[in-house]
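User: Can you help me understand a structure? I only have the sequence.
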Amino acid sequence: MPNKLRLYMNHFHHVDSHLCITFNRASHNILIRNFFKAVSRLGDGIFWYSLMALMLCIDQGQALLPVLHMIIAGFIGTLIYKWLKARTLRPRPFNVHQQISLRSIPLDQFSFPSGHTLHAVIFTLVAIHYYPMLSLGLIPFTILIGLSRPILGLHYPSDVLVGALIGILISVISFSII
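Assistant: Let's start by predicting it. Here is the structure, written out as tokens:
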């Protein structure tokens, strides 16, 4: 059984790497590269903190619970993804594959899971829980953040998928607590 598992893991890694290389080829187009660099930069936190500030300005006291919910869930997400990165130590794809061009400066050394995607999912799900009308803008933006990671050579698709799943899990658990 270990040989079969190793074979599946090798196949998965091959597919994951191939998908990453394919996504990254899109970054050869300067318009696509610059668009996704801007999306990624907004996903660093600028967009989310601005959204929370805007919620407070518009809804004042009514926005306090949603903003605190976003902050707490985001903090828990940070703890989990930093812990996972320190345990898995998965190198970023541009460090492993010469065919992958790095198109943005990484925030840290390792790739698993995608913290940008994890936080985008958390913030989106929490925000639309309280403000459903925001889903029209936040869901596409979150998808673009996830796509930006392999396009810019920073993450494998599996890093993005796992980041999204962890973000969903944290959000769902937070809804049952708050």
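Now, to help you interpret it: Residues 30-59 form the longest helix (30 residues). The mean pLDDT is 92. Let me know which part you'd like to focus on.
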